[in-house]
Amino acid sequence: MFKGILLTKPEGVTTATVQSIDDSVLGEGDVTVGVEWSTLNYKDGLAITGKSPVVRKFPLVPGIDFAGTVYSSQNPRWKVGDKVILNGWGVGETCSGGLAQTARVKGDWLVALPAAFTTRQAMAIGTAGYTAMLCVLALEKHGVKPGDGEVLVTGANGGVGSVAIALLSKLGYTVVASTGRMAEAAHLQALGASTVMDRAELSKPGKPMAKERWAAVVDSVGSHTLANACATLQYGGAVAACGLAQGMDFPASVAPFILRGITLYGIDSVMAPLAKREEAWARLAQDLDIAKLDAITTEIALEDAIGVAADLLAGTVRGRVVVKL
């Protein structure tokens, strides 16, 4: 038996409780991990509250991330005592995940913990920070350079946005942060944003094309915000799109794509291949300022995670939340 959050669905309503969980709830896999830290992402908030049908089977332990120590392994990549990270792969959706003291997964899904990070710091980064790094890598491979102009980061107070600002500013880019919480402007500037703008400037229906401004964009919002970001990209610019906080729709025009030659990159962190994951974590170890990471991280106990999941969906949580197991 081990402690964790268990999701059940009696009478069609998702229920989340902290309780002692039997080993039978764990998924199939060849590596068992003692989870030390997990985290809360937007998707975890949806799963725990039942606001969206993220979870595909019940009962199930939520949590799309975890970091910890290998307890047992039948996979040649891992031995007992190895420190590992998991992000995505459907964990916390189709099989039990990281918000419990024990997890069992396929060893091919795991990434070695970089020496630069503790397991707590790895979860302060989590899928949100790893996704932010995938966005930055996509923009770099597109050819965007610091001298090309401003880079817009939408959803700036969220996990992806916060880490993206810290990464881009350290790499020398001029970052403009878009947020619905202008009271947090000083915090975003401390992370490295040169300018903070109200998300209302981007979140309403706009023109198919508007004045060129951004060299590149990291967008975790979608909908009209993403459409307006594309409409205001400089010639040859790029957007790395990784989220849908405003909506799944994309009410845009092909005009900026064919008249300005812009590019829209879809960033998937869930099923990304191992080589891409390892590249992202290696760059995080190299380029992420740990002091800035600590400034955006809040630590909670497992017992508090259910309540904080609701706060996360309400948009009242700043940065990253780590859960101590």
Detailed description of the structure:
- This protein has 325 residues and is α/β, with parallel strands linked by helices.
- It has two domains: 2-113 and 291-324, Medium-chain alcohol dehydrogenases, catalytic domain (Quinone Oxidoreductase, Chain A, domain 1, Alpha-Beta Complex); 127-266, NAD(P)-binding Rossmann-like Domain (Rossmann fold), CATH 3.40.50.
- The protein has helices at 42-49, 119-142, 159-170, 185-191, 223-231, 255-259, 274-287, 290-295, 305-313; strands at residues 2-8, 15-21, 31-39, 65-73, 83-87, 102-105, 111-112, 150-153, 174-179, 193-198, 214-219, 233-241, 263-266, 297-301, 320-324.
- It is globular.
- The two termini are 14 Å apart.
- The mean pLDDT is 95.
Instruction: For the record, give the distance between the C-alpha atoms at the N and C termini, rounded to a whole number.
Output: 14 Å
Taken in chain order, the helices and strands follow as EEEHEEEEHEHEHEEHEHEHHEHE
In DSSP terms (H or I, runs of 4 or more residues), the helix count works out at: 9
Helix content: 25-40%
CATH class of the largest domain: Alpha Beta
Give a count of the beta strands, DSSP E runs of length 2 or more: 15
Beta-strand fraction estimate: 25-35%
What is the level-2 CATH architecture name of the largest domain? Alpha-Beta Complex
* Cα Rg: 19 Å
In CATH, the topology of the largest domain is named Quinone Oxidoreductase, Chain A, domain 1
- What do we call the CATH homologous superfamily of the largest domain? Medium-chain alcohol dehydrogenases, catalytic domain
Class per helix and strand makeup: alpha/beta
Overall mean confidence score, pLDDT: 95
For the sheet with most strands, the description reads: 7 strands, mixed
Tally of discrete structural domains: 2
Shape: globular
Q: In terms of per-residue confidence, which ranges show pLDDT below 50 for 5 or more consecutive residues?
A: none
